[in-house]
Design a protein that fits this description.
Length: about 475
């Protein structure tokens, strides 16, 4: 069940556009659910849960989401009537890009943002609506995972003083006359500093109201553990903030290194396939990304997203119909097409996936459908499913198998964040061995994955800088081979 802060009264008392008399003047039907939806929408915007991909200060709401929430007909363009006093946006048939998969950009009006600033900055906790709030001693994992003996506390051990210190640090990064600088200038789509303050305020209010920092999970369709309900969560907040707030916790961040690429490498070895380009990419990933960054003027994080898409059916093409082209531009994809590293890695990845995934996915018949079951027992109906979706389902299953193997062995796990987890300092060797042992015993082959650890007390690097002038010897050796 969804949890939410019960803040409607504070919002409706200060924002005329969401008062019942105003909504009744527009239509006497569905006044109460429309008011509730608009208050929830404002909370989503303030907590930056649906950021727009190309407009850092804006939110992204699909047309279908708004029509359903406002309970209005698609034949009548009335959504603008309810939203224009709350958001600025382009009205009528403008402001979206269907080819790029972009919705209109909705920006909170300053007067509305000021009200929400007051609501979230209040020292008084808000009631929690929905299910009962669990104590810190309860399990944050869903029942299906908890049954396997896995546990994380329902509250992450983060003090409100840690949140306050993180807020002060973000304020220190602001220039006196500019609050619109990016939280991390070297990451595309990053929040502005002003938005980061909103996220911290939301975290503080949730901390006060929930009795701690929420740490509740739900099981997603492919087996990954995602955030549950409408709470703030370590998974959903920006990475920079995620590393700021546990600064004094004594905890460390553990990650599976190049997780899906390493899984592909393990699958290939189990099948007796050679993957020289995948092997080279894993050994020299940072150097390859820096080389591509120099040639494309993109940041390495953006290039990581492109190469990762090849593991789930993404295409190395400059066609405007390809999502990668719509995201980074045609000339970037043309550069990668011409580079022998990216071209060879892409081709080898496609060929390897097509050979190993059908061998490791168990297919069974359920009624009139054929389903594929991944390593954590999650089923995907494959009748008509794309290859990319099948690859993603398989790789994510192995990822979560490894994470659960670690959680069974790790001392005092505190949280799971995608292909990583948070725990007190400890050696990674026994955790890597647990993945190898459990995969050999349960899957019939060895997942050989590496784990890196980083203390949350480590300084956060403000600038990305590196020397891009290189041509390593290993590349010449690989091409000769």
């Amino acid at each position: 069940m969804r949890l939410a802060l019960e803040q409607d009264d504070r919002i409706t008392s200060s924002i005329p556009a969401v008062r019942r008399d105003r909504l009744s003047s527009l239509s006497r039907k569905h006044v109460e659910p429309r008011q509730k939806f608009l208050c929830d929408l404002l909370a989503i915007s303030y907590e930056r849960r649906h950021p727009h991909r190309s407009e850092p200060r804006a939110d992204s709401f699909s047309r279908e989401f708004l029509l359903k929430g406002l309970r209005v007909s698609a034949r009548r363009n009335v959504t603008a009537t309810y939203l224009r006093d709350l958001y600025s946006f382009e009205e009528q048939n403008r402001g979206y890009n269907r080819e790029a998969g972009l919705t209109k950009a909705y920006r909170l009006r300053d007067s509305v943002r000021a009200v929400l600033d007051e609501v979230y900055s209040s020292p008084d906790p808000l009631p929690i609506e929905g299910e009962s709030v669990p104590s810190a001693l309860e399990n944050g994992f869903p029942a299906a995972v908890a049954r396997d003996g896995l546990f994380v506390p329902a509250h992450v051990p983060i003090a409100e003083s840690d949140l306050r210190e993180a807020e002060d640090r973000i304020r220190g990064w602001m220039e006196p006359d500019n609050h619109e600088g990016l939280l991390d200038p070297h990451r595309t789509g990053e929040l502005t500093l002003r938005d980061a303050l909103q996220v911290i305020r939301a975290c503080r209010m949730w901390h006060r109201s929930f009795g701690g920092f929420p740490n509740l999970y739900r099981l997603q369709s492919h087996g990954r553990l995602g955030p549950r309900g409408g709470t703030v969560h370590l998974i959903t907040i920006p990475r920079t903030i995620r590393h700021l707030i546990p600064h004094r916790s004594g905890l460390e961040d553990f990650d599976l290194v190049s997780c899906h690429w390493s899984i592909l490498q393990s699958l290939a070895r189990a099948a007796g396939l050679e993957t020289p380009w995948v092997d080279a990419y894993l050994r020299h990933k940072e150097e390859w990304h820096r080389f591509w960054a120099e040639g494309t003027a993109l940041y390495p994080g953006d290039l990581k997203a492109i190469t990762s898409s090849w593991l789930t059916g993404g295409v190395l093409s400059a066609s405007p119909r390809v999502s990668g082209t719509r995201t980074v531009g045609r000339w970037v994809m043309e550069f990668l097409q011409k580079d022998h590293r990216s071209q060879s890695l892409y081709q080898e990845t496609r060929e390897t996936l097509s050979q190993v995934i059908p061998q490791v996915m168990q297919s069974i018949r359920e009624g009139s459908h054929t389903v594929a079951v991944n390593a954590v027992g999650q089923a995907l109906v494959i009748d008509g499913a794309s290859q990319g979706r099948l690859y993603s389902h398989a790789l994510t299953g192995f990822e979560q198998f490894a994470i659960r193997a670690c959680c069974r062995r790790v001392r005092d796990p505190q949280a799971v964040v995608y292909d990583g987890f948070i725990a007190p300092p400890q050696e990674v060797g026994p955790l890597e061995e647990s993945i190898r042992e459990e995969s050999s015993g349960h899957l019939g082959f060895t997942l050989d994955l590496r784990i890196k650890r980083k203390s949350f007390s480590s300084p956060i690097v403000d600038r990305w800088a590196c020397d891009l002038d290189f041509e390593p010897d290993y590349l010449a050796e690989l091409m000769a081979a």
